[in-house]
């Protein structure tokens, strides 16, 4: 469906600016609603909708904006109009919601900070992108039934079946992150079941407002806990997310790729931790030892390039144990062992050095070796 609405997006930190052109009416308002909810899903907590170039806004669109304003408050976020004037300002004033929507507020977005990335409205697929409107009502009816009523199970299954396409759409948003889409779809389905079972209609919000963050959280936990080849401590995983966000922000602000020092100062974190996090990214998908190396010989793998074990590596433990045992021998026997095995002297030469007979040296040497052999074998 073609609509007379243009939307450009600018971002900074956890804020977004949507600049609208054309007409915001009954046909185009659902597209704006979808764009705003995608910004909330992405972690944006402050959204300004700039309408200075908007030609027209009708009553249904004003109703959608008011709905989004209330929904943002439920999500601990804010959304407000900006640049409201002319026909648009008159329309929201007649509706009595100009002040509530922040139509008189000034916009703190300098032109130098606006990227104005066009939003592809045709790619939003609104036909299956919304939660079924009857889901909230059905779950409210489910909660009014007695715990043992068989109708509870039928309603529960009906809601899950109706909402499953939307849960699958949420899973597709994360499909480019390296995980099989089938796995993410299963995780989203599990999150949907948790949302259905945990939804409380008495809180006064729609089911979709509760289900979306529940499913998104389940998918993010899947990435955090199940997909790492080498499991990182949660501290490093959380810092990695902050580093990735900071890298995008600083690239826009500095006009270049940020250095480790830039990231550390922006995050108020030690440079050593930032370096550790940047290096930890390789743990997400470890490279197999059977991966071919980039050489002319395609049969060579990474495992072939790794050095082997030193020939005397297995003797390290015995040598360390022997050092401790030698220290337990009498000083005279230690000296005889040193002259024999390190000085390469004969027993006769040793006898001359220590001032005793060759037979005595032989008996002391035999005694020392028997002691060491017995203790090492034990």
Overall mean pLDDT stands at 83
State the CATH superfamily name of the largest domain.
STAS domain
- The proportion of residues forming helix, as a percent range, comes to 40-55%
Q: Segments where pLDDT lies below 50 for 5+ residues?
A: none
User: Shape from CA axes?
Assistant: elongated
Largest sheet: 5 strands, mixed
How would you classify the helix and strand content by structural class? alpha/beta
- What is the total number of structural domains? 4
- Number of helical stretches of at least 4 residues: 15
* CATH architecture descriptor name of the largest domain: 2-Layer Sandwich
Key words describing this protein structure:
five-stranded mixed β-sheet; 4 domains; sigma factor; alpha/beta; Four Helix Bundle (Hemerythrin (Met), subunit A); 378 residues; Transcription Regulator spoIIAA; transcription regulation
Can you characterise this structure?
The protein has 378 residues and is an alpha/beta fold. It folds into four domains: 5-124, STAS domain (Transcription Regulator spoIIAA, 2-Layer Sandwich), CATH 3.30.750; 128-226, Four Helix Bundle (Hemerythrin (Met), subunit A) (Up-down Bundle), CATH 1.20.120.1810; 230-306, Arc Repressor Mutant, subunit A (Orthogonal Bundle); 314-377, Winged helix-like DNA-binding domain superfamily/Winged helix DNA-binding domain (Arc Repressor Mutant, subunit A). The protein is built from 15 helices and five strands. The protein has helices at residues 29-41, 59-74, 86-94, 134-144, 151-172, 181-198, 207-226, 234-254, 260-267, 271-280, 302-305, 316-326, 331-341, 347-354, 358-377, and strands at 5-12, 15-24, 46-57, 78-82, 117-118. The protein has a five-stranded mixed β-sheet, sandwiched between helices. β1 and β2 (15-24) form a beta hairpin. α9 (260-267) packs across α10. The protein is elongated, with a radius of gyration of 36 Å. The relative contact order is 0.06. The model has no long low-confidence stretch (mean pLDDT 83).
């Amino acid at each position: 469906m073609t609509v007379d609405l243009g939307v450009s997006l600018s971002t900074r930190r956890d804020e977004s600016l949507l600049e609208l052109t054309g007409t915001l009416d009954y046909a185009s308002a659902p597209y704006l609603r979808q764009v705003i909810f995608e910004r909330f899903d992405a972690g944006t907590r402050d959204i300004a909708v700039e309408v200075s170039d908007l030609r027209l806004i009708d009553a249904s669109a004003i109703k959608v904006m008011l709905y989004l304003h209330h929904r943002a408050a439920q999500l601990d976020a804010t959304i407000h109009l900006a640049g409201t004037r002319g026909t648009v300002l008159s329309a929201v004033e007649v509706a009595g919601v100009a002040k509530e929507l922040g139509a008189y507020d000034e916009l703190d977005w300098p032109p130098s900070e606006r990227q104005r990335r066009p939003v592809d409205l045709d790619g939003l697929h609104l036909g299956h992108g919304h939660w079924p409107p009857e889901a909230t009502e059905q779950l409210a009816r489910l909660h009014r039934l007695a715990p043992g009523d068989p109708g509870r199970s039928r309603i529960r299954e009906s809601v899950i079946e109706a909402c499953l396409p939307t849960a699958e759409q949420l899973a597709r948003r994360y499909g480019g992150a390296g995980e099989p889409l089938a796995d993410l779809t299963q995780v989203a389905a599990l999150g949907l079941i948790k949302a259905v079972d945990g939804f409380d209609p008495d809180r006064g919000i729609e089911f979709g407002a509760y289900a979306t963050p529940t499913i998104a959280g389940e998918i993010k936990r899947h990435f955090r806990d199940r997909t790492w080849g080498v499991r990182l401590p949660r501290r490093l995983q959380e810092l990695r997310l902050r580093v990735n966000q900071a890298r995008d922000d600083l690239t826009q602000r500095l006009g270049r790729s940020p250095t480790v020092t830039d990231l550390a100062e922006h995050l108020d974190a030690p440079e050593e931790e930032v370096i550790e996090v940047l290096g930890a990214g390789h743990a997400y998908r470890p490279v197999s030892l059977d991966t071919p190396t980039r050489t002319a010989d395609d049969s060579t793998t990474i495992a072939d390039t790794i050095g082997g074990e030193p020939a005397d590596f297995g003797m390290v433990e015995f040598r360390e144990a022997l050092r401790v045992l030698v220290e337990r021998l009498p000083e005279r026997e230690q000296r005889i062992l040193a002259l024999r095995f390190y000085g390469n002297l004969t027993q006769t030469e040793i006898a001359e050095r220590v001032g005793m007979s060759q037979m005595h040296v032989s008996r002391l040497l035999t005694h020392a070796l028997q002691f060491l052999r017995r203790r090492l074998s034990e």
